[in-house]
Amino acid sequence: MIQSVVARRYAQAIFEIAVERENTDKIEEELQVVKKSFASSSELRNWLSYPFIDQVDKKSLLAQVFADLSEPVQNLLFLLVDRHRVDQIGQIVEAYQALNDEHKGVVEATVITAFPLRAEDEKQLIETFEDLTNKKLRIQKQIDSDLLGGVVVKIGDRIYDGSLRTKLRQFQKRLQNAKVQ
């Protein structure tokens, strides 16, 4: 999902508070709880976005539903209600996670294979790309049988394509361009 400038600003603000209080991971966990709650409850989203319900009532409900969350997260929710931006919570959480990952030296990688990776192959792949990027890797695995074999790794805006499909295409192009003497 593309993050809006507004979402990044809210994420940056709460991240700075979390760094100050040295609890960036706890805040991220709490934000993930909020995101999942909003994603799973259309009633909650609809009720909070309904314009004729008083802001005080909305905040009261959020205080009850999220009573176990820390003060910074609750204050963020209250601010989002005040500014009519509750619908931005998913993007804010994603932006916060990106900031926290950068702070911890973690990078998100998507690993696409034709078949599920064995544990030892996954471990070797992680080690290889952690050495390459000098960052800790958090991977998301995807299966794409069209690859035929090999692996495609996406890290940020870089793609490392070691798939059999790509190698066959490159071979086909070389054959087409080869001159017969």
Kindly report how far apart the N and C termini lie: 52 Å
Uncertain residue segments? none
**In which order are the strands of the major sheet placed?**
2-1-3-4
Count all strands and give the number.
Answer: 4
Helix content: 55-70%
Based on Cα principal axes, name the global outline. Answer: elongated
Q: The CATH topology of the largest domain is what?
A: Peroxidase, domain 1
CATH superfamily placement of the largest domain: N-terminal domain of the delta subunit of the F1F0-ATP synthase
CATH architecture of the largest domain: Orthogonal Bundle
Share in β-strands: 15-25%
Summarize model confidence as the mean pLDDT.
Answer: 89
Mind telling me the C-alpha Rg? 22 Å
Q: Order of helices and strands, N to C?
A: HHHHHHEHEEEH
State the CATH class of the largest domain. Answer: Mainly Alpha
Based on helices, strands and strand pairing, what is the structural class? Answer: alpha+beta
Please sum up the structure shown:
With 181 residues, the chain is an alpha+beta fold.
Can you describe what's shown?
This protein is of the alpha+beta class. The chain has 2 domains: 5-102, Peroxidase, domain 1 (Orthogonal Bundle); 105-177. Helix content is 61%, strand content 15%. The protein is built from 8 helices and 4 strands; from the N terminus they run ααααααβαβββα. It has a 4-stranded mixed sheet. Strand 3 and strand 4 form a beta hairpin. Helix 2 packs antiparallel against helix 6 (89-104).
